[in-house]
Amino acid sequence: MTRSEIALLLGAIAGRDQRTIGDADVLAWHEDLGDLDFADARAAVSRHFRESTDRIMPAHIRRLTRIIRDERRASTTVRALPPGKLEDDPDRDARIARNRNRVREILAEYVVARSVPGADEPPLTGSDLIRQRALDRSRAEKRSSRREAA
Q1: How many CA atoms lie within 13 A of 91 on its CB side?
Q2: Which of 44, 63, 100, 136 is most deeply buried (CB count within 10 A of its CB)?
Q3: CA-to-CA distance for 79 and 100, rounded, in angstroms?
Q4: Which superkingdom (predicted)?
């Protein structure tokens, strides 16, 4: 909490137990409560005055803030994480096979779309296709340069 939040907290306390507050009070309480969340500290003050008639001190607020945080954690539900790479996942093998087949289908469609129509031999794939395209480009450039020379 900031010093201004500590002053607001002390103001809420003073409204209940008629204490006087000064700069020294704010500094002293800031030393004791500065690391707490303001909303939790306000809830702790409210809870203290609902349950006790004792004059509130920083130790009361620290204890009640811890209880409030523990209650919040206990009521919070945690979603289960998906299984990690090294954990058992019964769907992993089926998912990998499904994805592998889908990639093969896409590559086959691509090869068919890029193949030369009417060719009797099976379409080239991978490095063979790249090599064939490079040869075709080289031959086309040689023919072009012969025409220009003639």
Answers
A1: 5
A2: 44
A3: 30
A4: Bacteria
Which residue bears the tokens 């289960």?
A: 80
* Look-up of token digits 């209940």: 16
Neighbours of 117 (CB within 10 A): 5
Place of tokens 């086309």: 140
Rounded to an integer, what is the distance from CA 79 to the centroid of its chain? 14
Are 3 and 30 within 8 A, CB to CB? yes
Q: What are phi and psi of 83, to 5 degrees?
A: -60, 145
**Run of H or E including 56:** none
Q: Which residue has the higher pLDDT, 108 or 62?
A: 62
- Residue scoring higher pLDDT (7 or 82): 7
Give which of 43, 44, 30 is closest to 1, Cα–Cα. Answer: 30
Specify whether the CB–CB gap between 24 and 56 falls below 8 A: no
Q: Is the CB of residue 60 less than 8 Å from the CB of residue 9?
A: no
Report pLDDT digits (tens) over 36-92. Answer: 999 999 999 999 999 999 999 999 999 999 999 999 988 887 777 766 777 777 787
Q: Where are the domains of the chain?
A: 3-75, 92-149
